[in-house]
Prior knowledge:
The structure is a single chain. The longest helix has 15 residues, at 71-85. By secondary structure, the chain is of the alpha+beta class. The chain has one domain (2-89, 100-123): 2-Layer Sandwich (GTP Cyclohydrolase I, domain 2). The protein is 27% helix and 36% strand.
Amino acid sequence: MIIVELHGAEFFARHGFYPEEQLLGCKFLVDISVGFIPIGELNEDNLANTVNYEQLYAIVNLQMQQPKKLIETLAQAIIDGIKKQYTFIETITVTIKKLNPPLKGRVAHSGVIITYNRSENEIQ
């Protein structure tokens, strides 16, 4: 199995449960890891035989522009977009960190991790 990853993709977005969060927005960091069996031979040096991390970024970027109340919902939308683009994906892990969440004390980030596994066809 091959793993393709993006780490620390940074976005300013307006996700949050409270109206103030959606109005003010904040920074988010997104990590993605996708596992798959290559479609063709890797020694063909063909991008069509693998997962294009530029396309992964585009999927995340699109979802980050669509405000959600829960980052769990956001992570699931990213997973759904990846599954739609790359039907041969076996596993997907999406980590979203909300930097400096609006809490009463200093917190570096809040976050969520969602993992999809095709063989189990469910979120873990």
